[in-house]
Design brief:
Elements: H1 2-12, E1 23-28, H2 30-34, H3 38-48, E2 51-58, H4 62-68, H5 78-85, E3 90-96, H6 100-108, H7 121-125, E4 134-136, H8 140-150, H9 164-167
């Protein structure tokens, strides 16, 4: 019932999931999957207190990736990015929690690993921007668009997280 109400709420208000129920899209890129970093990445988000509501391993089509990265289509690296992202499996995830989009960006680190602090995913595991292990939505609006590209509504679970009382006031 709670999940149904949340879905209705998100459809009524274009800004979507907010507050405790905000949702963000995270994808472990092919290099992260090949390097077997998926478990470590999931663990970081769980330890932060976020709730996993959707996850799947997918070999993304070039069409999906062109749509996902449509804002970058005029950049010189666009074709290479699509080729790289379609070169292997991706772990697509949806995480839920208070300010999850903004906080996820901090967990990820800067897009360019050279600018990422130790303790962030990119600061700990990446050297080059072209192989930066992970993608995270940069805004709530982007998260909504990306989630709808990668997941059908019935692929997202709404479940009561018993630890929420220990994370949120």
């Amino acid at each position: 019932m709670i999940c149904l109400l949340l879905m209705i709420f998100s459809n009524l208000f274009p800004t979507g999931w907010t507050g405790f129920n905000e949702r963000g899209f995270i994808a472990v890129k092919p290099d992260g999957v090949q390097r077997r970093l998926v478990g470590e990445i999931i663990q970081r988000f769980e330890k932060k207190g976020f709730q996993l509501v959707g996850m799947k391993l997918v070999q993304a089509s070039e069409d999906l990736l062109r749509e996902h990265y449509r804002d970058l289509r005029d950049k010189p690296f666009f074709k290479g990015l699509v080729r790289y992202m379609s070169s292997g499996p991706i772990v697509a995830m949806v995480w839920q929690g208070l300010d999850v989009v903004k906080m996820s960006r901090r967990v990820l680190g800067e897009t360019n690993p050279a600018n990422s602090l130790p303790g962030t995913i990119r600061g700990d595991y990446c050297v080059e921007v072209g192989r930066n292990v992970i993608h995270g939505s940069d805004s709530v609006e982007s998260a909504q668009r990306e989630i709808s590209l990668w997941f059908r509504p019935d692929e997202l679970e709404c479940w009561e997280d018993s630890s929420a009382q220990w994370i949120y006031e």
